[in-house]
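for the record, two folds in this file. i put them one after another cuz i was lazy. first one right below, seq on top, structure tokens after. the second one comes after a little note so u can tell where it starts
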Amino acid sequence: MNVFFRDFFTDPVLFLSFGFLGIVIGLCLFYVYYFIKKINDAEVPEQ
């Protein structure tokens, strides 16, 4: 396990790949939260 952390911090390709993957997953989670919040706060029109 110690070798993995050493390789992770010394290999820029591996580091940036996980970094960008984390950013993309973070954006996806933000938009899921954003749209669910907008749906819950939406006013229902009366007919």
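(here's the note) second protein begins now
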Amino acid sequence: MVEYRIDRHSGVATYVQIVQQTKQALRLGLLEPGDRLPTAREVVEATAINPNTVLKAYRELEREGLVEARRGLGTFVRRSLGATPADSPLRTELEEWALRARAAGLERDDVSALFTAVLDKHFQGDPS
């Protein structure tokens, strides 16, 4: 089950953070079709956010066709995203690269900017 981490200082709306983290879990194969998302109550207890915020995020995921609410049962994953499992060799290489970047003295924002620049270069015009 996914555990949401809310960054109150990020400037990103809380419900958007939940949507993004759910999509990331779907892309990494941490959530698969049939898996149940945490209930709004469970998310509220873990993060101290408003239950309506959780419900708004889940409605957005439902609107995108990624999850479905089943009355009295919860919210379940309908489909996955991407094809890169959490144990992918590419992830291992990226983790090693991140360690080298940190050892070289790069800050998180530096690494993010560098990675984004490389993504933009190689995925230019990519619809996804």
